[in-house]
Write a structure and sequence with these properties.
The model has no long low-confidence stretch (mean pLDDT 96). It is globular, with a radius of gyration of 26 Å. It is built from 31 helices and 23 strands. By secondary structure, the chain is an alpha/beta fold. 47% of the residues lie in helices and 14% in strands. Helix 24 links the parallel strand 22 and strand 23. The structure holds pyridoxal-5'-phosphate. Pyridoxal-5'-phosphate (PLP) binds next to helix 5, helix 22 and helix 23.
C-alpha cells in the first residue's frame, strides 16, 4: 500500500469535511481522515479471495476487546512507518493518536482473546469472521478518587468510528415477545499481517424496527415515540461488567438473543442466497461459541431450519455439526443459567426449542445427570456441549479439569468431543507494534519473519551468552521502563524511578487472581525494610492495574487497600528509596501495550485451578519477562516451554489445593505466623483509613468468616510466595536473571495466537 497516497487522500478528506489543511486539523479529524483513506483503499480487496466457496468460520462473542485499531492496522498493512514519516514532515507526531479512545467492547481476557484470534485468522489466511454487539458504551473508564474506584461512562466513539461501514441494507429484524427491533450491522475490517487477507468483524446495533410514526407525531404522542426508540436502543447501551449484580439480567438476556439471532438470520440468508441446500449448511459454515453468552445461537439455528420445513431431528443434527463451544471458566457460579420462565416470557420461540432439546436428550441418553433444563432452569453450557461437535478448554490444565471434574459426566458419554486449544496472543500487537525496540533487536539478530512465525524466536537462544546481545537486551528493557515511568508520571502523577525493579500485576481485579496476596507481600517487605532486617533489599516498584466490577465489593476493597499501602510506602522516608507502589488508573489495552514490555517480573499468582489460561502471562513472557506464579492455567505450559528453572513458581498446586480445602483453618494459619498476623491486622487496626466504609475490615473478615473463609488460600500460600519472591528479588540484576528473561522471550513461540487458530482450523473447524 502506498502511504504517500493515503496521506494525500487524507488531505482531501479533511479539506472536504472542514476546509482545513491536514496539519491544521485536530487529532480526531486527522485520525478519521487517515482511517477513512485506508478504508477506501482496502474496500475492494476486503473479504475477497479467501474462501473460494469453501467453508467460512464465524466467531460468536459477546465481547471483542479491540483496543485502538489505527496503529495495528497501519502496521499490518506495512505503512506504519511511512505514515509516521509523512506526518512528521507536516509537523505532526503519530503518537497523537494515543488521545483516541480504545474500543473497549470487552471486559478482559476473554474479549481480548477474541480480538487476537480474529487478527491471527486474517494473518494466517483463515476465513474467520467475528460477530458481536456494537455497544454504545464499552467497559467503564476507571477513575481513582481518594484511593477508591469510580466508574465513568466510556464513550468510545467520541472521535467517530471511521473503522466501520454501516450496512443498512443487510439489517435483519429480531423478535421478542413484546416488541421487535432492527439489527443493523457495522462491519470492521480485520486486517491480517501483510494485508493480504482482510476478514470482517460484524457488530450488530439495535434500532427501532418501524419507521418514524407520523400518525403518532400528529397526535402529539411524542412520549410514545421516544419510549419505542429507547427500548430498542437500550439493548446495546452497555457492555455488562462481569460479576455485576442481578440488576439488568433481563436486558442481558435480550442482548444475547439479539446478537445471536441477527447473526444466525444473516448467515442462513446468505447460505440460501448462495443456492446451496440448507441440509449442507455445515459444509460451508462452522461457528465457534466464545463461552456461553452466544449459546442462544443454537436453538435459533434449529428454529430457523425448522421454519424451512426441516424436522427437529434433522435441524438438530445439522446444528450439531455447525457449532463448537469454548469454555472459559470452571467456577460454578460463573456457569450461565437462565430461569425458563424468563426465557419463555421474553423469547417463547426459543423456550420451545430448548424444551424439544430436553426431550431429545431424555430420549437419546436416558442419563439423569445429563440435561438441558432442570428445575425450570436452562444450563447454557449443557446446551452447548450437547449440540456441538467440540467443547474445548483454553489450556491443558484447564481442559483436564473440565474432563475430570466440571463436565465429567459429559466426558464419559462424549470423550471424543473434548479438545484442548491453549490460548495465544498476537505477536503483532503484543511485540512488533508495542515494542519496536525489542523488535528491531530481534530482527537484527535473527532476521525478519518471526512476526508471523513466532517459533523462530527460538533462534535467540544462541545469543543468551553473547555479551553484545545481552547488553542490547538490557538497554531495550531500560528504555521501555523509562517510557513507562514517564507515562505513569504524566497519567498518575506518581514517580517510579526506572532503575527500580518493575514487578507488575495487571489484570481484572478478582479474589482468585489474588492481588491481595501481592499487597500482603508489599507490607511484609515494608516492615522488614523499615525495621532494618533487609538492608540489601533492591529497590522495587510494585505496579498494579485492574478494574473491579462495579458491584464487586471485596474487589473494590482490595483496590482501596493497595492505594492505602501506596500512600504509606511512597511517603515514608525510611522506605521511599527502596519501595514504590502505584495503582495505575483505567488499565486497558492501550495502557497494557506500554506495561507488558516494561516489566521485570510478571505476577501470575492465581489460586491453582482457578485461572483457565491467562493471556497476560504470555504477553509478559514474549517481551522477555520471568513469571512469578503458581502452577495454574497456561503458567504450566510456560514452564514447560521455558523450563521451570527459568520461572519463579510457588504455592499449592491443584492437588494440594484440593487436599488443603478439605480441612482448611485459615484462622490457625494466621495465628501461627506473627508476620502474617501483623500484616492482616493492618486491615482493621487503624493503620489505614477507609473513610469509614468498613471495607477493609470486611475484607479481613472474608479471610476468616463463613464457609468460604479464605476461599482462595491467600493465607495458606503466603509463606511460599514470600520465599520465592525474596529469592527473585535477590536474583534480580544478576547475569543469570537477564538470561532467564531472554530465554523466556525465545521460548514464547508456542503462545502465538497464530498457532491457536491453526489448531482450531485443523482439529475443530476441519478446514
Ligand atoms: C491480556 C489482557 C487481559 C487478560 O489478562 P490476564 O492476566 O490473562 O487476566 C485483560 N485485560 C487486558 C487489557 C489485556 O490486554
Amino acid at each position: 500500500m502506498n502511504y504517500k497516497q493515503i496521506i494525500k487522500n487524507a488531505e482531501i478528506i479533511v479539506k472536504a469535511n472542514s476546509g482545513k489543511k491536514l496539519e491544521d486539523a485536530c487529532v480526531s479529524e486527522v485520525y478519521c481522515a487517515i482511517s477513512r483513506a485506508v478504508m477506501a483503499e482496502i474496500a475492494e480487496g476486503w473479504n475477497k479471495g479467501v474462501t473460494n466457496g469453501k467453508k467460512r468460520v464465524g466467531y460468536l462473542s459477546a465481547e471483542f476487546l479491540i483496543g485502538r485499531s489505527i496503529y495495528a492496522n497501519l502496521f499490518n498493512l506495512g505503512i506504519l512507518n511511512g505514515v509516521k514519516e509523512e506526518l512528521a514532515l507536516r509537523g505532526m507526531d503519530i503518537t497523537m493518536f494515543e488521545d483516541i479512545e480504545d474500543a473497549a467492547l470487552g471486559n478482559g481476557g476473554l474479549g481480548r482473546l477474541a480480538a487476537c484470534y480474529l487478527e491471527s485468522g486474517a494473518s494466517v489466511n483463515i476465513p474467520l469472521d467475528g460477530y458481536g454487539i456494537r455497544y454504545r458504551y464499552g467497559l467503564f473508564r476507571q477513575r481513582i478518587e481518594d484511593g477508591f474506584q469510580r466508574e465513568v461512562a466510556d464513550d468510545w466513539q467520541k472521535a467517530g468510528d471511521p473503522w466501520s461501514f454501516r450496512k443498512d441494507d443487510e439489517s435483519v429484524t429480531v423478535s421478542f415477545a413484546d416488541y421487535k427491533v432492527k439489527a443493523v450491522p457495522y462491519d470492521m475490517p480485520v486486517i491480517g499481517y501483510g494485508g493480504n487477507t482482510i476478514n470482517t468483524l460484524r457488530l450488530w446495533q439495535s434500532e427501532e424496527a418501524d419507521d418514524f410514526d407520523f400518525d403518532l407525531f400528529n397526535e402529539m404522542k411524542t412520549q410514545v415515540i421516544a419510549t419505542r426508540k429507547v427500548r430498542a436502543e437500550e439493548i446495546c447501551y452497555v457492555l455488562y461488567p462481569n460479576d455485576s449484580t442481578e440488576k439488568g439480567r433481563l436486558l442481558r438476556l435480550r442482548q444475547e438473543y439479539f446478537f445471536t439471532s441477527a447473526t444466525i438470520q444473516d448467515l442462513v440468508r446468505k447460505h440460501k442466497a448462495s443456492g446451496k441446500p440448507l441440509e449442507k449448511l455445515h459444509e460451508s459454515l462452522s461457528l465457534q461459541l466464545n463461552d456461553t453468552h452466544p449459546v442462544f445461537a443454537i436453538p435459533e439455528l434449529i428454529r430457523l431450519l425448522m421454519e424451512e420445513n426441516m424436522t427437529f431431528n434433522k435441524a438438530f443434527e445439522i446444528s450439531r455439526k455447525v457449532f463448537n463451544f469454548t469454555n472459559h471458566t470452571i467456577m460454578g457460579e460463573a456457569l450461565e443459567r437462565w430461569d425458563m420462565r424468563r426465557v419463555k416470557k421474553l423469547i417463547p420461540q426459543i423456550a420451545r426449542v430448548l424444551r424439544m432439546m430436553q426431550k431429545h436428550i431424555e430420549k437419546n441418553l436416558q442419563n439423569e445427570k445429563l440435561f438441558i433444563i432442570k428445575d425450570e432452569t436452562v444450563h447454557m453450557a449443557n446446551v452447548a456441549i450437547y449440540c456441538s461437535s467440540a467443547t474445548n478448554g483454553v489450556a491443558q490444565l484447564h481442559t483436564d479439569i473440565l474432563k475430570q471434574d466440571t463436565f465429567k459426566d459429559w466426558y464419559e458419554v462424549y470423550p471424543e468431543r473434548f479438545k484442548n486449544v491453549t490460548n495465544g496472543i498476537t505477536p503483532r500487537r503484543w511485540l512488533a507494534v508495542c515494542n519496536e525496540e525489542f523488535s528491531s533487536l530481534i530482527t537484527e539478530y535473527i532476521g525478519d519473519g518471526w512476526q508471523n512465525n513466532l517459533e523462530r524466536l527460538a533462534e535467540l537462544a544462541k545469543f543468551v551468552d553473547d555479551e553484545k546481545f545481552v547488553a542490547k537486551f538490557k538497554a531495550m528493557k531500560q528504555a521501555k521502563k523509562q517510557q513507562l515511568s514517564d507515562f505513569i508520571l504524566k497519567r498518575e502523577g506518581v514517580e517510579i524511578p526506572s532503575n527500580f525493579m518493575f514487578d507488575i500485576q495487571v489484570k481484572r481485579l478478582h479474589e482468585y487472581k489474588r492481588q491481595l496476596l501481592n499487597a500482603f507481600s508489599i507490607l511484609y517487605y515494608y516492615f522488614e525494610i523499615k525495621e532494618g532486617r533487609m538492608p540489601d533489599f533492591k529497590p522495587t516498584a510494585f505496579i498494579f492495574g485492574a478494574k473491579a466490577a462495579p458491584g464487586y465489593y471485596n474487589a473494590k476493597a482490595i483496590i482501596k487497600f493497595i492505594n492505602c499501602i501506596a500512600e504509606k510506602v511512597n511517603n515514608d522516608p525510611d522506605t521511599k528509596d527502596k519501595l514504590r507502589v502505584v495503582f495505575v488508573s483505567d488499565y486497558n489495552v492501550s495502557y497494557a501495550e506500554k506495561i507488558f514490555c516494561a516489566a521485570d517480573v510478571s505476577e501470575q499468582i492465581s489460586t491453582a485451578g482457578f485461572e483457565a489460561s491467562g493471556t497476560g502471562n504470555m504477553k509478559f513472557m514474549l517481551n522477555g519477562t520471568v513469571t512469578l506464579g503458581t502452577m495454574d492455567g497456561a503458567n504450566v505450559e510456560i514452564c514447560e516451554e521455558a523450563g521451570k528453572e527459568n520461572e519463579y513458581i510457588f504455592g499449592a498446586d491443584v492437588e494440594e489445593v484440593a487436599r488443603v480445602k478439605k480441612d482448611y483453618k485459615p484462622y490457625e494459619v494466621y495465628m501461627a505466623d506473627k508476620d502474617l498476623k501483623r500484616i492482616v491486622d493492618t486491615l482493621d487496626d487503624g493503620t489505614f483509613n477507609d473513610n469509614g466504609t468498613g471495607m477493609l475490615a470486611s475484607l479481613k473478615q472474608s479471610l476468616f468468616g463463613g464457609w468460604s473463609a479464605d476461599h482462595y488460600l491467600v493465607l495458606h500460600d503466603f509463606r511460599s510466595y514470600i520465599q520465592v519472591k525474596t529469592q527473585l528479588l535477590n536474583d534480580y540484576g544478576s547475569e543469570e536473571f537477564t538470561r532467564k528473561c531472554i530465554i523466556n522471550a525465545s521460548k514464547a513461540g508456542k503462545f502465538s495466537s497464530d498457532r491457536s487458530v491453526k489448531e482450531y482450523a485443523k482439529n475443530i473447524w476441519k478446514l
